[in-house]
Every structure is written in structure tokens, then in C-alpha cells.
């Protein structure tokens, strides 16, 4: 639930916080070095899709790291967090050894702390705004590591707390899509007393958290525990149900649903439309990652096949490209390569992912762009023609535009190519709902900060509104939508 | 989980199952398909909805044993459950009153063809149906087709039933005899290709229903892409039916073999 600035300031003055503030001198806090995350050795981890790379902080490391935090009067870190986690409060609980309390602070505002602690681009969000970075030009407090630590501790302790709940008001709301946005919305609405049902097209709950992000970065078990918490809060989940196809929105209204939250994601893969792209062996990152992560195709026991090759090229430079190329390595590729048309500096992937990929032996062919695919006599891709690029003037995104270098083409051998050049919004809902305002990019238009669409009882957020974004932004949208839908529904049905 | 309430063997390799799926039964239209999965390690495979009973809340699926996944479906008995079933998927067939329609089904393609034949007939068309297969045992749904067709022609490659010859020979006979306003063809890719070549010669608008490889069936993966009129389309959301004269059948057939080796390996493993 939302806490005012005032409230947060007063909490900081509580006895236990004041005592902690006094216990260690600021200078001593600032002289501690930032914790290093332990990782599984690259040679070991590339043998399996399911060995987590980062292994978490020890209790000792976590307490030490927590004591770096200055418990600032004005905690700027919180401004960088899209769900406004009370960062100093949870960190100070860790410093006192009250890890379960720390976890419950996280749960106040985030439905999926163990997930965010792992996949949030912390370096660009909370940590970038940390006092250490802004004022001291030193490495930030490792907020993400600590968040993961507290959430993992709670999960492993078996004492998973159920958050405070308001008495049920019996009003039915439907959530379309079970990605992070839908889950975070569902959690908040359940807390507010609504009767929440989440509809998911696939056979698993979690959206990209399950079918996209690989288990070596985010184990499915971690996601499942968070989903279990939502179930305990009374949220219902219906899989294999495509809203707009299995039944229409009107059918759901007839069933008593009073309002809808669309969190249907950006599931449509983009291709480059270059010659030969429909040859066998060339697939979207969505297909590749879904086969492995959702269908378990890396395992012998799965009925779903996946293509393996000696030379695997992944086209793109985002998180999806890194996840694909590291998956290729784990499926046994001798050469797993990234082909990216700009330079490493412009890569949208998290720095940590690029670093891990390099440790694992991934090759980076930057300033290189595919222009044609060449298939063998069986129609399977065998080679790709690429062109060198150089950086020109900045484009509208502020990144320097890549320009082809004439006459620089050369041939690269490849038996599998994964195209990871972006996704577009999932068109199922925008196409099936009459009167819904949709942008020219196919995203659903909403009133900013309210997340309400042109249809009053329909709210939307996450990738379907933003195009491809991040887990935490999707969750932030879910929270905002819950708050505003609550106001909308209270006015309509609960006030006399 | 969806329960199997009836099962019938059409032939050694082709089985019809009736499955509980009340919402899909209600919302499905001719041309729609479902995606299902048998077992926790199961693969997602597409199957056309061959019929539905809204009162009973059931849909009919007709499945041919091809590899591991279709065999697992065929081996399910009455009272057992399909682990996951989602649909209806794909664009429904565009049914209009056009005059005379020639419906051509090959092998297990007769299953998806049946609801289309039914719908064309209901819309007031004259429907001539040709069913073709390698031999007598592989001709399925003959009685149901006859019920909804003005004329039914059966052809077998070996002459063991009906007329001997390829489906295109039967088609040409009809086309020479009377004016055909539209043709629908569903069956193996190679058959659809030759049907399409024939109707192109006679300038008869033709629709083919493609059975591309699929994973999600919602436009998310691109496994099902085909080239139609020079543009890449996703069979699951843009199809499965397309203007046959615009389809790049060579590419489509090549893509059907995209996982051939992997599938053979899985099948060998399954047999053990
Ligand atoms: C490979 C990969 C790696 C990524 N790595 C990171 C990372 O490290 N950090 C980060 O912050 N972000 C990352 N992202 C981005 C992040 O995952 C997304 O921004 C986020 O998942 C968006 O959440 P969402 O809830 O809007 O949608 P999604 O997670 O896409 O979920 C949407 C769900 O809705 C379902 N759906 C769609 N239509 C319907 C319908 N009509 N009826 C029922 N269900 C429907 C879909 O099946 C899907 O499950 C990554 C993305 C990918 C693909
Ligand atoms: C829209 C649509 C409707 C269909 N309707 C029917 C139907 O009503 N009855 C029926 O018997 N079959 C139907 N099929 C085909 C059916 O999906 C395949 O026979 C089945 O997936 C084969 O899987 P397998 O593991 O048994 O065989 P495999 O050994 O894996 O493959 C045999 C062949 O089936 C095809 N195939 C393999 N995997 C897939 C996949 N995931 N999706 C699609 N094709 C695949 C390939 O061409 C492959 O060479 C339909 C396909 C589509 C796309
Ligand atoms: S949710 Fe993300 S942005 Fe917010 S505190 Fe945690 S790691 Fe930082
Ligand atoms: S800005 Fe940094 S030091 Fe200050 S409260 Fe936040 S995490 Fe702690
Ligand atoms: S089956 Fe995945 S996009 Fe068509």
C-alpha cells in the first residue's frame, strides 16, 4: 500500500532505526567495499540450462553490505524504483539480522521481490540514484543483491508471510495475461479485497518470466513460489484461456466481471525481412527460448525438439539476444556468436549479462549486420552474409546510427540463427476489442499514471502499453492500475 | 485438463476423439483449430476442430499417428485427460453463398474439411466434395461428408475404392463438366500444391489450409511462418487458410521438414 513521504520520514525516526544510525560512524560505513556476488564457474554452468549463475550473498556478506547504506534522510534510491520499495527500511532490517522483516517490507510494494532482485536493471534504476553514486562517485549499495537475499531467505525459511488483506468486497475483476504486470496487479487487487481471476493463454503462469528468461538467470521455482503466495491470497488462475478467442470480453462481463486489466505483453517477434530468412534453422528468439524454457526441449525427456548446431549466430544486442546466445552455448554450440549492428557500448542488454556471456565464451561480432541467408540443398541455413557497419550521427533514440561500410561483406558459417531484434505488442486484445484506442505501434493507449484505457472499465499496463520494457516497469504499471481501478470501482459500486 | 468422452478408430492410424471443452465448443467456427499437449513433458501440437456439440460441451478431433505427439493423443482412452487444450485458434473460414464449391480433401485433411463442407452447404451453395487417399482404409468421414454434399466423389491411388487416380484427375473432370466458383483444398502439402496448380490453370479462386509447424498458436513464436504473395505470414494468426495461388508451396514443404531429424530421434527414443 502507498506510503506518504511524511510516513517514510517518520519511520526513519523510530528508535531502532535511530539506534542503528548511531551505532556505526558514517565514515566507517563508507569505507566498506561493495559485496561481490558469488557465481558458478563458467565451465560448470554452461553444462546446464538450469544451473543458476549468481548464487546469492551469504548472511555475513548481506549484513556487511547492509551496513554500507547510510539510511539517508532523503533516500534518493527510492525515486529510482518504479514500485517505490522502502529501500532503507528493508536494508536496515537486514543490518539488524531481521531478514524476515526485511522481506515483509519488500512485499508491501512488490509482488515479486525474488524476481526483481535477480532481473531488474538495478544499475539503471535504484542503484543509479543511490547516494554513493550521486554524491560520492562510488559503487552503489547493492540494493538488488540485498533484495534477492531477503526474498530468498524468506522462501527458504518456509515462513512466507501473507500480506495484510482487506475483507472481501465480492467484486470480480479479470486480469488478461499472467506476466509480471498482471501478477503485480492481481496481488494489489487481492489485498484490496477484490475477487481476482487471472487468464493466461499458455499452459504456465508467469509470461516472459517462464517462457523467456532462462532458468540460469531466474529459476522457475522462484517464480512459482511467488505465484503460490498470490494463490494463498485468493487470486485464481485459469491457464489455456485466450481472452478474445476462448471467450469474448462480453462473455466475461456476462459472467460478472466488472473490470479488466490487460497485461498481455509484447509477444509478437520481429524479423528483418532479408533474403532467405524463412530457411529452416532460422528462428525467432521467442521460438528458441520457448522451446527450451517453457517446453524443456534441452532435456531428453521432453517431446519438444530444438535445433542444435556447431555454429549458432544470434542477431541482436538486448537481454533477449544474450539469453538466446547463452542458451545456445548450453545446448552445445562450439561457436555461439552475437551479431550486432552497433558497438558494444550501445547494447541494450544489462552489463552483467554481457559480462557473463563473455565469461562463457560467447563471441561478439559488433558493428556487423546480416544482409542475406544462404541455405543448403535441404533448405537448412548454412551461411549468412554479413556487412560491416560504422557509427554515424546520433538517431532519434540518441544512439549513434549504424551505417553500412560499402564492400565490407563477408560470409559466416552457421547452422542455427536466432533472430532477437525486438518484439511488437501482442495484437490479440487490441484487435478484438471494439472502441479501444490503440497507437500506431499497436500499443494500448492509456491515461498516464492512471493506466485507464479509452474503455473506462479496462486498464492496461506493461509491455502491451510500453512496447518492450522491463519487469519492474510492468509491475509498476500493475500497481498504478490497481490503485486507480480501486478508486473507479469504489465510486461505481461501493459508495452509496 | 480435458476429458475424453468418446473414441472411435477410423483406421489403424487415424482416431477420432470427442473431448470435453465447453467454451471452445461454443466459440469455435469452421476452420478453427486447437493446440494441445499430452503429459507434463508433452509437445504442443495443433489439431483442427472437426466438429462440436454445444449442448454436450464437446469438440471432435481426428488425429493421424505421425510421430511421438500424435501417437500419444491417439493412445488416450475414454475417461483419460488431455493435459492442456487451448483454442479456438486461427481465423475462421470465410463462408459465403458463391454458387458451386469444389471441396477437396486428402487423407486426414478430411477432418478439417468436414466443418467447412457443412458450412458451405448451410450457406446455400452447391457443394461437390472429392475425397482422396492412398487406399480404401485411409478414406475417412465418408458418410458425414456425403450428408452435407450435393455430390461426393471418392478416389484412391490404388483403385481399392471409388475411382482410381489422383485427386487432380477427379477435379479436372468436374471442372470440365461445370462452372466452379471456388475451390477448397486440405490435405498433404504436396496434394494442395497440385490442386492449386490445376485451379490456377482454370482461374478458379482457391483456398488451402496449411498445416505448418507450430508452438504457441497465438502469433508469439513465428515457427509457423509461410510466404504468401511474397510476404511472410504467420499461419496461426493470419491463417491457417490462405489464397492457394499466392502460397509458396516449395518453401512451405521445406519448412515442414525443419525439425525432421530431431523428430525421428524423438520417435526412436519413444519406441524404446
Ligand atoms: C528473453 C527476455 C529476457 C528479458 N530479460 C529481462 C531482464 O533481465 N530484466 C527486465 O527487467 N526485463 C527483461 N525482459 C523484459 C520483460 O520480461 C518484460 O518487459 C515483461 O515481462 C513484461 O511483462 P508483461 O506482464 O507486460 O508481459 P509478459 O511477461 O509478456 O506476459 C504477457 C502474458 O499475457 C499472455 N497473453 C497475451 N494475450 C493474452 C490473451 N488474450 N488472453 C490471455 N493471456 C494472454 C501471454 O501469453 C503472456 O504470458 C526480458 C524479456 C525477454 C523476452
Ligand atoms: C492448423 C493445423 C491443423 C492441423 N490439424 C490436424 C488434424 O486435424 N489432424 C491431424 O492428424 N493432424 C493435424 N495437423 C498436423 C499435426 O499437428 C501434426 O501431425 C502433428 O503435430 C505431428 O506431431 P508428431 O510429434 O506426432 O509428429 P512428428 O514426428 O513430430 O512430425 C511429423 C510431421 O508433422 C509435422 N509437425 C511436427 N511438429 C509439428 C507441430 N508442432 N505443429 C505442426 N506440425 C508439426 C511436421 O511436418 C513433421 O514432419 C494440423 C496442423 C496444423 C498446423
Ligand atoms: S524492484 Fe528493482 S528498482 Fe526497485 S529496489 Fe528492487 S531492484 Fe531496485
Ligand atoms: S540512497 Fe543509497 S545509501 Fe541512501 S538510503 Fe538509499 S541505498 Fe541507502
Ligand atoms: S505458432 Fe507461434 S507464431 Fe504461429
From TrEMBL, chain B:
It comes from the Bacteria. Pfam families: DHODB_Fe-S_bind (PF10418). Coiled coil: none annotated. CDD domains: DHOD_e_trans_like1. InterPro entries: Cyt_c3_hydrogenase_gsu, Dihydroorotate_DH_Fe-S-bd, FAD-bd_FR_type, FNR_nucleotide-bd, PyrK_electron_transfer, Riboflavin_synthase-like_b-brl. Residues 1-95 form the FAD-binding FR-type domain. This is Sulfide/dihydroorotate dehydrogenase-like FAD/NAD-binding protein. It comes from Paralabilibaculum antarcticum.
Amino acid at each position: 500500500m502507498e506510503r506518504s513521504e511524511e510516513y517514510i520520514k517518520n519511520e526513519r525516526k523510530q528508535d531502532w532505526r535511530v539506534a542503528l544510525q548511531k551505532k556505526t560512524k558514517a565514515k566507517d560505513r563508507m569505507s566498506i567495499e561493495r559485496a561481490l556476488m558469488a557465481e558458478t564457474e563458467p565451465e560448470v554452468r554452461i553444462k546446464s540450462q538450469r544451473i543458476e549463475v549468481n548464487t546469492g550473498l551469504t548472511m555475513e556478506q548481506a549484513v556487511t553490505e547492509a551496513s554500507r547504506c547510510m539510511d539517508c534522510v532523503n533516500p534518493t534510491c527510492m525515486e529510482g524504483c518504479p514500485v517505490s520499495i522502502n529501500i532503507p527500511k528493508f536494508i536496515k532490517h537486514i543490518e539488524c539480522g531481521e531478514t524476515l522483516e526485511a522481506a515483509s517490507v519488500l512485499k508491501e510494494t512488490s509482488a515479486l521481490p525474488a524476481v526483481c532482485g535477480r532481473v531488474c536493471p538495478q544499475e539503471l534504476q535504484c542503484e543509479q540514484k543511490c547516494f554513493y553514486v550521486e554524491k560520492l562517485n562510488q559503487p552503489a549499495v547493492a540494493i538488488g543483491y540485498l533484495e534477492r537475499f531477503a526474498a530468498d531467505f524468506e522462501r527458504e525459511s518456509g515462513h512466507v508471510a501473507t500480506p495484510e488483506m482487506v475483507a472481501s468486497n465480492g467484486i470480480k475483476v479479470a486480469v488478461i495475461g499472467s506476466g509480471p504486470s498482471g501478477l503485480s496487479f492481481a496481488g494489489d487487487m487481492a489485498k484490496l479485497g477484490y475477487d481476482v481471476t487471472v487468464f493466461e493463454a499458455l499452459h504456465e503462469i508467469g509470461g516472459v518470466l517462464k517462457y523467456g528468461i532462462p532458468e540460469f538467470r531466474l529459476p522457475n521455482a522462484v517464480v512459482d513460489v511467488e505465484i503460490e503466495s498470490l494463490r494463498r491470497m485468493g487470486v485464481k488462475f485459469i491457464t489455456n484461456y485466450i481472452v478474445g478467442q476462448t471467450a469474448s470480453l462480453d462473455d466475461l462481463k456476462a459472467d460478472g466481471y466488472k473490470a479488466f486489466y490487460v497485461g498481455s505483453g509484447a509477444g509478437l517477434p520481429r524479423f528483418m525481412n532479408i533474403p532467405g530468412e524463412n530457411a529452416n534453422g532460422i528462428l525467432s528468439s521467442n521460438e528458441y527460448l520457448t522451446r527450451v524454457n517453457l517446453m524443456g526441449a534441452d532435456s531428453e525427456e521432453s517431446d519438444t525438439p530444438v535445433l542444435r548446431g556447431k555454429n549458432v549466430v544470434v542477431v541482436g544486442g538486448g537481454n533477449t539476444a544474450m539469453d538466446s546466445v547463452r542458451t545456445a552455448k548450453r545446448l552445445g554450440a562450439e561457436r555461439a556468436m552475437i551479431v550486432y549492428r552497433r558497438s558494444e557500448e550501445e547494447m541494450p542488454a544489462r552489463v552483467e549479462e554481457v559480462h557473463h556471456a563473455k565469461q562463457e565464451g560467447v563471441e561478439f561480432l559488433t558493428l556487423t549486420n546480416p544482409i542475406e541467408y544462404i541455405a543448403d540443398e535441404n533448405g537448412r541455413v548454412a551461411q549468412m552474409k554479413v556487412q560491416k557497419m560504422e557509427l554515424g550521427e546520433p538517431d532519434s533514440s540518441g544512439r549513434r546510427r549504424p551505417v553500412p561500410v560499402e564492400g565490407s561483406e563477408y560470409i559466416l558459417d552457421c547452422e542455427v540463427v536466432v533472430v532477437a531484434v525486438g518484439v511488437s505488442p501482442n495484437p490479440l486484445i487490441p484487435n478484438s476489442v471494439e472502441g479501444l484506442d490503440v497507437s500506431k505501434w499497436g500499443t494500448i493507449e492509456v491515461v498516464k499514471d492512471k493506466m485507464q484505457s479509452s474503455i473506462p472499465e479496462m486498464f492496461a499496463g506493461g509491455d502491451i502499453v510500453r512496447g518492450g520494457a522491463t519487469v519492474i516497469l510492468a509491475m509498476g504499471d500493475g500497481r498504478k492500475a490497481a490503485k486507480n481501478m480501486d478508486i473507479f470501482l469504489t465510486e461505481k459500486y461501493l459508495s452509496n | 485438463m480435458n476429458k475424453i468422452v468418446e473414441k472411435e478408430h477410423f483406421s489403424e492410424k487415424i482416431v477420432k476423439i470427442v473431448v470435453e471443452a465447453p467454451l471452445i465448443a461454443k466459440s469455435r467456427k469452421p476452420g478453427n483449430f486447437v493446440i494441445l499437449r499430452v503429459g507434463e513433458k508433452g509437445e504442443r501440437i495443433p489439431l483442427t476442430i472437426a466438429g462440436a456439440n454445444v449442448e454436450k460441451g464437446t469438440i471432435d478431433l481426428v488425429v493421424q499417428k505421425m510421430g511421438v505427439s500424435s501417437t500419444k493423443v491417439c493412445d488416450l482412452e475414454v475417461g483419460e485427460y488431455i493435459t492442456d487444450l487451448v483454442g479456438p485458434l486461427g481465423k475462421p473460414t470465410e463462408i459465403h453463398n458463391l454458387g458451386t464449391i469444389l471441396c477437396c480433401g486428402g487423407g486426414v485433411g478430411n477432418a478439417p474439411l468436414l466443418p467447412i463442407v457443412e458450412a458451405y452447404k448451410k450457406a446455400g451453395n452447391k457443394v461437390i466434395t472429392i475425397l482422396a487417399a492412398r487406399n480404401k482404409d485411409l478414406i475417412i468421414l465418408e458418410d458425414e461428408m456425403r450428408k452435407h454434399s450435393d455430390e461426393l466423389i471418392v478416389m484412391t491411388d490404388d483403385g481399392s475404392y471409388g475411382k482410381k487416380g489422383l485427386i487432380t484427375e477427379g477435379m479436372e473432370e468436374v471442372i470440365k463438366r461445370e462452372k466452379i466458383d471456388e475451390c477448397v483444398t486440405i490435405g498433404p502439402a504436396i496434394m494442395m500444391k497440385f490442386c492449386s496448380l490445376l485451379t490456377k490453370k482454370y482461374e478458379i479462386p482457391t483456398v488451402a489450409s496449411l498445416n505448418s509447424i507450430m508452438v504457441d498458436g497465438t502469433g508469439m513464436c513465428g515457427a509457423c511462418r509461410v510466404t504468401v504473395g511474397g510476404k511472410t505470414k504467420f499461419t496461426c494468426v493470419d491463417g491457417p487458410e490462405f489464397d492457394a495461388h499466392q502460397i509458396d508451396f516449395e518453401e512451405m514443404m521445406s519448412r515442414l521438414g525443419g525439425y525432421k531429424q530431431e523428430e525421428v530421434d524423438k520417435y526412436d527414443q519413444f519406441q524404446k
